[in-house]
Amino acid sequence: MRHSRTRAGVALPDILLAASAGLLVYTAYSRIKERRSLPGHPDSAPGRTSRQSRYGDYAVSGRSVTINRPRSELYTFWRDFENLAQVMDNVDSVVPDGEASLWTIRGPGGASYRIRTEIVADRENEEIAWRSVDGSDIDTEGKVMFRDAPADRGTEVEAIVAYVPPAGAAGQLIAKLFQREPRVQGRREMKRFKMLMETGEVATARNRSSD
Amino acid sequence: MRALTYHGKHDVRVDSVPDPEIVNPRDAIIEITATAICGSDLHLYDGVIPGVMNGDILGHEFMGRVVETGRDSTLKKDQRVVVPFTISCGKCFHCMKQQYSACDNSNPAEKQDLTEPLYGEALSGLFGYSHLTGGYPGGQAEYVRVPFSDVGPIVIPDGPSDEEVLFLSDILPTGWMAAENCDIEEGDTVAVWGCGPVGLFAVQSALLMGAHQVIAIDHYPNRLDLARKLGAKVIDYRRTHVLEALREMTGGIGPDAVIDAVGMESHGMAPDNVVDTVKQKVGIGADRGHVLREAIMAVRKGGRISMPGVYGGFLDKFPTGAFMEKGLQWRTGQTHVQKYSHDLLRRIQEGDIDTTFLISHRLPLEEAPRGYENFHSRQDEWTKVVLTP
Ligand SMILES: NC(=O)c1ccc[n+]([C@@H]2O[C@H](COP(=O)([O-])OP(=O)(O)OC[C@H]3O[C@@H](n4cnc5c(N)ncnc54)[C@H](O)[C@@H]3O)[C@@H](O)[C@H]2O)c1
Ligand SMILES: [Zn+2]
Ligand SMILES: [Zn+2]
């Protein structure tokens, strides 16, 4: 995450909303790893579950779900980023842009944000990692990993996202009020991903398509 | 269409609302032919379940005729079906284990935000209940949208009347699972608190499962009478010391298993219940745990507690000591309805189980508010209300 950016003139919550929006997944993974091996963090829990949730400039969150489908199927769905708009509420679209992908994310009041991501690691049926590149409205990294679950439980999917909250810790607090904090957003997205993969649809209580 | 909707504590009305449509591929639309009011609806009516919103359509015990099916539904138009109150996908880890009421995929992701901090995990979806369980429009209406219609609804062949099978939607399997959770062995005494529909079906089920005796506890003479007619011994807690009586009726051992079929709105003036009632009224998420405490005190050492009664928040003065020192086991949960549907339908068809004894009142849907009022305030005579749109 070398580039940094702030977009002047955009209200704080807007940026944040956008930030959390599509970011389902990211990783300041190497940083988390460092953390994990520091004295005072001797347990075997993932770094993102640490009581400390900031690493340098980055806010990190992540979520695991077990999905009762084979790894290859889940990897294949995810690898085509265009599919992800189906499980991400405020992602309007993801379209290929040369080697990169261009994400269009909906903010409040009709605001729209763009993130260009490139894939930085891709191991078939195991792992996909990406990060935003210059020209993005938000500085973010993400990573998703697929592992066989024990017995016949399917696949453990773990997604991690890191991003730079625009206004420091206060930004996350404000976003929380909007329930769009990445932790919440990430959980919703992973649960929807699970729903779609396991049941072929995303659960809704709407009584009519127009509701 | 017309539907019974929630407008605040003790205020339900029949309103005109838009008809439901197919939204997801596995959906079906059912035209309701019969629906009932449940003790769980009374918790909503009393405003003690969080996450109920004005305008919500209530009702989770219903059956009807299939009028429309989504692309991936396996139902056919005109089939007569009973619909389980638990919404289950049939594909997730929990559904594969037949823990249908723990389904991972039926509660919309955006409705799960509150239950994770409150309960540690998201709950599954239920019809006509709380937004914590999805906020799905219920079946006290002319039509209902049924998600995962290839998994939940059970098709009813010609033969049994609607009234004979309607309770497959909830209270019959709930009473059955409550008894199953008692692991009944030869010679066992099962004590059941509450002679409402759930308690009565638990009595019936425990006897069918071979309990030596079932002792039912309540304070309404008519409800106690229904339990007696099913073959239970009865205790009126207004008249009798429940703990002493249970010990004396079990040769000094205590009941082998106890069933709390009352839940979070226990009646009575026992001191702990009065304190709990105040806390519940103040709205601090407190449950009224008198029955549960009494059941834990009554059950024999090494015994089993089965708790179909619904709780929603927190409980003070939980007898942890008695629970641990007596080495008890405790099982509970919303019922895994789909697990029991076929077996119980067969028992109804073969005449082993009758459910119609329970129905005290039949009303048109338009009079549902009167049904709520009476099922709530005149429980002795109003044992079960069936509504027809
Ligand atoms: N687990 C499930 O899936 C499930 C399904 C349906 C209902 N329920 C729950 O089961 C419970 C009972 O439902 P119902 O429809 O039978 O309700 P109900 O309100 O008709 O019956 C409750 C009965 O408990 C009796 N009671 C109250 N206080 C008592 C006490 N201190 N000692 C003995 N009896 C007492 C009442 O007099 C009443 O007859 C409710 O909590 C309901 O929400 C659970
Ligand atoms: Zn019910
Ligand atoms: Zn499921």
From TrEMBL, chain B:
Q: Alcohol dehydrogenase-like N-terminal domain: from which residue to which, for each copy? A: 25-153
Q: Keyword Membrane: yes or no?
A: no
Entry keywords, A to Z: Metal-binding, Oxidoreductase, Zinc
Which GO terms of the molecular function aspect are on file?
A: oxidoreductase activity; zinc ion binding
Q: Which InterPro entries match?
A: ADH-like_C (IPR013149), ADH-like_N (IPR013154), ADH_Zn_CS (IPR002328), GroES-like_sf (IPR011032), NAD(P)-bd_dom_sf (IPR036291)
The residues covered by the Alcohol dehydrogenase-like C-terminal domain are 197-265
Kindly give the Gene3D superfamilies that the UniProt entry links to this protein.
Medium-chain alcohol dehydrogenases, catalytic domain, NAD(P)-binding Rossmann-like Domain
Q: So which cofactors does this thing need?
A: Zn(2+)
What Pfam families would the database entry show?
Answer: ADH_N, ADH_zinc_N
CDD domains per UniProt: FDH_like_1
Q: Entry's PANTHER family?
A: DEHYDROGENASE, ZINC-CONTAINING, PUTATIVE (AFU_ORTHOLOGUE AFUA_2G02810)-RELATED, ZINC-TYPE ALCOHOL DEHYDROGENASE-LIKE
Family, as annotated: Belongs to the zinc-containing alcohol dehydrogenase family.
Identification of the protein by name: Putative Glutathione-dependent formaldehyde dehydrogenase
Organism phylogeny: Bacteria, Pseudomonadati, Pseudomonadota, Alphaproteobacteria, Rhodobacterales
